[in-house]
Amino acid sequence: MLRFAPRYGIVSPCLVRPSRNPRRRAIERPANDNAPLDASDLFDAEGVLAAALRLFAAHGICAAERACEAAQIAEATGDAEGVVWWLEICRTLDRRMAREASRRLAQGG
């Protein structure tokens, strides 16, 4: 049996999310144009679920932790959309961990 195991702390290229353009997505919204965007507007639920399942397949029970680590890496690099993406994946896998991670990231630590 062959098992894929990426190096610790590295997000595998097979798990990288597809590129999304939030501006294009906002233009497609037919409802109130003045409403603030939230994570559900930026990412479709099926895409988040598929990414969460791929992450779970690669990392097993530690998948939510890996998503939190990826959110921290995205914050360190200044990728705000990446932070939201990885927190959504973490929320799909473990809501409590995602809530704690978003609280930590909001405090700056």
What features would you highlight for this structure?
globular; single chain; 0% strand; mainly alpha; 109 residues
Unreliable spans are none
| Mean pLDDT across all amino acids | 77
Please outline the major beta sheet. Answer: none
Radius of gyration: 15 Å
Quote the distance from N terminus to C terminus.
Answer: 40 Å
Number of helices: 6
Shape field: globular
What is shown here, in short?
Helices cover 62% and strands 0% of the residues. With 109 residues, it is mainly α.
Structure description:
With 109 residues, this protein is mainly alpha-helical. Helix content is 62%, strand content 0%. It has six helices and no strands. The relative contact order is 0.13. The mean pLDDT is 77.
List the helices and strands and how they pair.
Layout: H1 22-28, H2 39-42, H3 45-59, H4 63-77, H5 80-93, H6 95-107
Helix pairs in contact: 3-4, 3-5, 4-5, 4-6, 5-6
